[in-house]
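Field log, afternoon session.

UNIT: design team B
ACTIVITY: writing a sequence onto a fixed backbone
BACKBONE:
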């Protein structure tokens, strides 16, 4: 019997709350009828048919042996939710861990996610340190929470192997704010989904879709997912106070869907794959479950999506039509539109992450003077225009609270989606302009690992860039950056 390990796996896996279609696409959630919230008690139904299918292969980094199941009790077992909310467990890392170079630390974390050592990290600890202790327990090493040079080399080598074989990367989905581990070689195609992002293999054999839904209850979404399309056969389902899991067969595909509720919204992801792909997908499933965090507090590189239509934020820096934005917003665009002003041309970019656009013929625009010196740290506010999906098609300015450390690294106060915020203005506690926000995807982070996933390009760097382009700057003092912020739309082939 393979039931035991699979039950553990199912307890870890989270899934999107979107209804899955029989075809190779994953459908969006439809209107959800409001139903009474569940009693504060777990409701669970499951059979061990799904457990028999979904047992993963052993992880690459010395996995702990799974306990043998009690066959007599397996048919009525209740699946407890994984204790994996890093928002509640993360404390400051030790100086020794903090001193590890960022690129090496990312690889160590990636290997520990893959081996499942991040699962069930206890409250009140640093997650990385706790995961290292779990790793040391499995290897019967001294439990220090610090890595020896040999252990560091072992984990880095394991991460390199996983990346080479599967394209394994741990990223944040900018559309939902979810942190997720992705086998990018299995699912290289990324595109926008109804409530998140969908990654898939070229012919749809494997699909991963994130989702974020508001204005419904967890119980209502659970019931909708249990009904699902006609081809869905539920083999396991469990509803808890703040999460649910459903899995089984859909046509000839295996699926798992799980969602988690926090602060009035539900986030999760769906994994859907052909039965014939089970042997390939199984080794990745534990790693995906371990890395997944619907409301992450720790920064991670952002997933690179390269949408056909992508939104960002720009700042008008000259009354004559010059607009500043983040370089990635304007890359690969066939057409660039400064919303409400007109078509824009990219006239310059630089290695600091900036791009300069211009709308020709524009006059008397509300330009932002650049009067601030480089920032050092503290509370900041990001002013940007989110992706239209976040506002039901609207284009209202939105503020995100954050903190600035070391004059560069931006840490969001809440794990919120940032789609559309690349190029947003950063203001200090007094409302003075500090610079613009740039988001880094995992490809750029691999090439330049010391750059944080969300960072500030400061006003001094911006002034130098604009001076090199001979852009006439606004002179008025105490201008409001909110009036200079506009939506930038990039249309790609």
């Amino acid at each position: 019997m393979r039931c035991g390990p699979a039950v553990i796996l199912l307890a870890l896996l989270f899934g999107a709350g979107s209804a899955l279609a029989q075809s190779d696409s994953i459908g969006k959630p439809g209107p959800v009828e409001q139903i009474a919230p569940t009693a504060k008690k777990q409701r669970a139904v499951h059979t061990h048919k799904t457990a028999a299918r979904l047992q993963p292969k052993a992880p690459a980094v010395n996995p702990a042996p799974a306990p043998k199941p009690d066959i007599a009790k397996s048919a009525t077992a209740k699946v407890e939710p994984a204790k994996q909310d890093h928002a509640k467990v993360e404390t400051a890392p030790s100086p020794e861990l903090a001193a590890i170079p960022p690129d090496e630390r990312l690889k160590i974390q990636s290997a520990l996610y893959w081996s499942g050592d991040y699962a069930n990290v206890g409250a009140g600890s640093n997650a990385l340190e706790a995961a290292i202790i779990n790793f040391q327990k499995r290897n019967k090493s001294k439990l220090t929470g610090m890595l020896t040079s040999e252990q560091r080399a072992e984990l880095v080598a394991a991460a390199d192997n996983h990346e080479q074989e599967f394209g394994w990367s741990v990223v944040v989905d900018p559309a939902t704010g979810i942190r997720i581990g992705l086998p990018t070689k299995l699912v290289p195609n990324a595109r926008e989904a109804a409530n998140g992002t969908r990654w898939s293999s070229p012919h749809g054999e494997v699909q991963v879709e994130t989702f974020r839904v508001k204005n419904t209850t967890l119980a209502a979404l659970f019931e909708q997912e249990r009904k699902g399309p006609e081809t869905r056969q539920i083999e396991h389902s469990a509803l808890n106070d703040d999460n649910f899991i459903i899995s089984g067969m859909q046509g000839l595909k295996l699926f798992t869907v799980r969602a988690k509720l926090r602060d009035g919204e539900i986030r999760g992801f769906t994994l859907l794959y052909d039965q014939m792909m089970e042997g390939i997908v199984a080794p990745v499933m534990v790693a995906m479950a371990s890395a997944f965090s619907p409301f992450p507090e720790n920064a991670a590189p952002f997933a690179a999506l390269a949408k056909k239509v992508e939104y960002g934020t720009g700042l008008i820096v000259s009354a004559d039509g010059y607009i500043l934005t983040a370089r990635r917003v304007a890359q690969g665009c066939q057409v660039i539109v400064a919303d409400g002003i007109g078509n824009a041309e990219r006239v310059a970019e630089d290695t600091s992450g900036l791009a300069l656009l211009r709308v020709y013929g524009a006059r008397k625009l509300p330009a932002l003077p650049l009067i601030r010196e480089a920032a050092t740290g503290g509370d900041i506010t990001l002013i940007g225009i989110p992706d239209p999906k976040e506002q039901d098609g609207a284009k209202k300015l939105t503020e995100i609270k954050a903190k600035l450390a070391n004059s560069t690294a931006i840490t969001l106060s809440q794990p919120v989606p940032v789609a559309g915020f690349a190029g947003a203005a950063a203001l200090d506690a007094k409302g003075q302009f500090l610079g613009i926000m740039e988001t880094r995807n995992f490809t750029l982070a691999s090439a330049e690992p010391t750059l944080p996933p969300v960072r500030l390009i400061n006003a001094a760097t911006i002034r130098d860039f604009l001076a090199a382009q001979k852009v006439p700057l606004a002179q008025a003092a105490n201008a409001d950056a909110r009036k200079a912020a506009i939506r930038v739309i990039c249309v790609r082939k």
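LOG NOTE: Residues 1-9, 11-89, 443-449 have pLDDT under 50 and may be disordered.
NEXT ACTIVITY: expression trials, pending approval
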